[in-house]
Amino acid sequence: MSLSRKQFLSNLALGSGGLAIMSSFGFMSVSVNDYNSLKAIVIDFDKCAGCRTCETVCSSQNHKFEINGSFVHGLGNPELSNIRVWRYNPPLDIPVTCFLCADAPCVEACPVKPHPETGRKALYRDEELGTIINDYDRCIGCQSCADACRTNRGGVIFPDVEGSPHGMCTLCDGDPSCVKWCPYEALSYLEINSEMDFRNMTPRQIATRLLEKYYDVETSKNAAL
Ligand code: SF4
Ligand code: SF4
Ligand code: SF4
Description:
Elements: H1 5-15, H2 17-22, E1 39-43, H3 53-62, E2 65-67, E3 70-72, E4 84-88, E5 92-96, H4 105-109, E6 123-125, E7 132-134, H5 144-152, E8 158-159, E9 165-166, H6 177-181, E10 187-191, H7 203-215
Antiparallel strand pairs: 1-10, 2-3, 4-5, 6-7, 8-9
Bound molecules: iron/sulfur cluster (3 copies).
Residues 98-101, 104-106, 132, 149, 153-154, 156-157, 168 line the site of one iron/sulfur cluster.
């Protein structure tokens, strides 16, 4: 039986087993508070019209293809976007991209031992922009990060066929296209702070709060949520 590359890496990591995992318990992800002026995509749900331009722009920008040696923007495909717009009933549109969570539960969940020189797991925070990055060569494809993000936060990590995370916001290297192109100015690229509303919540939790605000309904009795 042949092993995929990820299965091979996984067996290696889990073969050295408890040691690798135990040694990562003390690993501290870099806190957002350690950054000066860390900026993230901040969403104004009052302004979002659910047009999904952000999904189209993001997927087009991040999935370019080559023609005669030149790279051109790809076709917009929401399935490939790093920002996803959740739709609820009664009408609510909830765009969600990486919150750059201070405690980064995705990084905490990664079982790969921190690299002895860089301190980075297979999933780590970029020191400059604060984005979450996957080291594909060290990733074992266990999907722990995707599970942690989906359970606790925005659910913005989408495993590829080998289980490695993709679909994480790159902030377009500091010049976010989704912010530029949102026709309703619902997206901003702002310095973040702990008081900002709706950060670090799941789309369902955000929808529950907004449903109460916009429709004045008791969400516990609402079948849609
Ligand atoms: S482009 Fe703006 S208004 Fe349209 S779905 Fe995205 S965030 Fe909402
Ligand atoms: S939103 Fe998800 S991917 Fe982004 S930092 Fe939080 S847990 Fe990690
Ligand atoms: S900042 Fe760039 S990568 Fe991130 S969601 Fe917006 S368009 Fe996509």
